[in-house]
Amino acid sequence: QVQLVESGGGVVQVGGSLRLSCVASGRTLDRYAMGWFRQAPGKERREFVAAINWSGGSTYYAEFAKSRFTISRDNSKNAMYLQMNNLEPEDTAVYYCNADTDPSTYYSGNPASPYDYWGQGTQVTVTS
After folding, report:
1. Contact 19, 8 (CB under 8 A)
2. CA–CA gap between residue 48 and residue 18 (Å, rounded)
3. Residue 125: its pLDDT value, please?
4. I want to staple 99 with a disulfide (CB 3.0 to 4.6 A). Which of 14, 32, 60, 75 is the partner?
5. DSSP string, 47-64
């Protein structure tokens, strides 16, 4: 049974930073692409944030995340991270990590794609 557990969320003021973590258990995910999605309050659909291939050599970002967020991973710890800087109120959301064997699944940024595994999410709240 594979579990992805997110942590690092919290309440932060505008302009602040947070580092989210996603740790996998149950199997090694060093051959999986991994990614972050988020779901803002009142929104029905999750939104793609960023993804990273199995080695960490390739990364993909949503436009809003390119200049402020950095995705990374540490396969020795079976973990992935999202460093978020200069946070804005619009970044308030539940952030979810996921994993899939096929990195091309992330190209469309479609949260409804059949990703192999999802975490339960961590809340990020940005106050002004």
Report:
1. yes
2. 18
3. 98
4. 32
5. EEEEEE-TTSS-EEE-GG
Q: What is the pLDDT of residues 65-111, one digit of tens each?
A: 999 999 999 999 999 999 999 999 999 999 999 999 988 888 888 98
Instruction: Say what the pLDDT of residue 103 is.
Output: 87
CA distance 38 to 123: 9
Distances (CA, A) of 40 to 27, 37, 57, 77: 30, 10, 29, 29
Q: Which residue has the tokens 């947070």?
A: 18
Structure tokens at 91: 């970044």
Asked whether the beta carbons of 79 and 23 are under 8 A apart, the reply is yes
What would the two tokens of residue 65 be?
A: 């995340």
pLDDT tens, residue by residue, 44-60: 999 999 999 999 999 99
What's the rounded Cα separation, in Å, for the pair 2 and 116? 10
